[in-house]
């Protein structure tokens, strides 16, 4: 953790940028009252000339977070944990329903319209980005 640069970003804008990675349109999926799991979606834009991978995430809503994607298996969609989400140089990778997502397990509280999340993303180039006040969305 010591050599990871933490960029603390604006509370009001969800148009966040660091030197090399830009995060846009972050939101948490609202949950039914008894659901313990949800997902965070966002877009990652790599503005550098090198491939960068998202390798870990932390949030105040849950102690257990995994990077996930969906796969088609036996004509069914299922989700699996993946070690990283790679963003090619000068391109955008979208985390969205049915595709890549940040999975939150064992939620401390249900996610409703008032919920705001704080999220820290860790990348394989030894940087991290903190996003605050992420809003929820009903999907
Ligand atoms: Cu998942």
Automatic annotation (TrEMBL):
One Pfam match: PCuAC
Transmembrane segments: none
Taxonomy, superkingdom: Bacteria
InterPro entries according to UniProt: LpqE-like, Lxx211020-like, PCuAC_sf
Protein name: Copper chaperone PCu(A)C
Native organism: Campylobacter vulpis
